[in-house]
Amino acid sequence: MKAKLYTLCTAALLLAACTNDPMEDIVSPGTETPGLTDMPEGSYVIDYTPTTDTPGTRADGDGPIQSLDYLLYASTDGSEGSYTLTKRRPIPDISLSTTWPLTRERMTWAQRQALKDTLETGKFYKAVFVANAADWLWDNDANTGAPTTNENLPTTSDKVLKNANLDGSTTAPNFNDARLLLPTAEQGSFNESNMYYLWTGDIKPTESHYDKNHPAQMSIVLQRMINKVEIRLEEAVTEGIADKGSVKAYVEGELEAFYNEHYTNTEDENTANWGEIGKPIASYLTNKANSITKVGTYNEKDCKEAFKNDWLGNIDKQRLVVADIISCSEDKPCTSEAPCAKHWFIEQTKDDFITRCDWSTVQSIDVIYDKANFPQAIGFDKQYKAESTEDSPTLTVERSADNRFIFYTYGYNADEPVSSALATIKSLEFKSTGGEFTANCGIIPGKDANLTGGNRSIYISYNPMAKLSLSETDKATYTRTNYDLQKAMNWNWTEGDTDCNFDYGNGVVIGGWHEDDMIEWVNYTVFASDATTPESTSDDGFRLITLTLENIPLVDFEDVWTTQDATAIDTQVLSDPVEP
Length: 580
What we know:
Shape: rod-shaped
Number of strands: 26
Radius of gyration: 39 Å
Strand content: 25-35%
């Protein structure tokens, strides 16, 4: 927004909760102002003070500003090149009880004087107003309350406003070197009443002809530079947990859905499509059928060949076996000794997801950046700077009293391409009583939601269940002990015959095989590789086998983060820039 004024108009020191950066130019020359004839030639007065005809504000009241500093930078070469600090002045009587906008009626006499300055005609300047950067606010040795004056500014380098003190050195601080640093953990944290505000404006003689009889006035809009970021679980996760009644039930339900999609598909007649559990089961049964080769007495050859061919050729029967192994029912509940495959898969994978989804046990979160991406500072040009020398700069976010995880940062600056990588979070380390874990992030808060600049309240939301996939490297072995294959295959005999009639379970009956020989052949030939002797048998005498399936892939997942604009930071919207 630019104020294009052609007569002397009222200016205001205003505060707007806006995200666009209003840059207000000097207003055009006004009429002669009485009382300034004693000004020396080659100078003029600039007045940053509003008068009584300031437009009405959208909200009045106490403002979230505790200190306000005025800094004036002058051109060193008479052009718009390099600027050095020539004045730094604290605006007096500013506190949380100050009522905004700071109209003339609300100002103290000292404030009126401090908001005027004398400048040289024809010279380029940069004027800066910065709020909440006073040293007493961020110095634990002096933060017991606002001092009556703060002219004697310390020169130590660990203050939040860096390279902007007039300390008597021969080289004046350069405009481009000024920094507003994020406070350290020792200095404290931001809250709604101490976030930085900044306004920077150009005073250009090429756009005006101020002199001792033509004072300048400037409209100021202080913009909050800080973004508030809340780390939280994705709404889909929190809603799913609420719907299922517990974190455990939610995670198990998500894993069961993934299992049903990827591990079983017994409806397909092609065994290659039976899924990650179905395929090795089909292979296991095929291998067992192919082991039926021994020729003996009692017409064994014909019986065995018929048995083998029936087993191999009856795909529906194999599907029944697969279904029997992978499912649980009231008649065959899952137990730790004999878990169905689905139960086994969920038990193998659920604990890590439960930890990641149960934030009731999280006490703190470390937000970790690469040092080149840590937006530790912001310049008076409102470009973010990477100042850290640490390999992995960390912000520790403690759980708040209302069980939220909030931190403050400068955020993403889309106006400067070189800064596009700044504010990228590398990872977050969760410190939880239920088990610590690290979530890869790689996100810039606000960028995905096209949120730039300061004064943003942003959610970054985490969903560990959003992108599940089959692992290429993490494999496990599924074991089912005391498995009754005879029951699964539904083998039966007709009682009373010396040579039993054997029913393969699908109505195909072959007679002439004695029951004891059949049992012995199956137990010691078909399953000879499983054990030399059966440890236990079914009621019909068939051994209860141990079914072992190897190289079953488990689940991989990606840490999915999204950004979302939250409600506006709760502060006063005071006024727009002055219009003619």
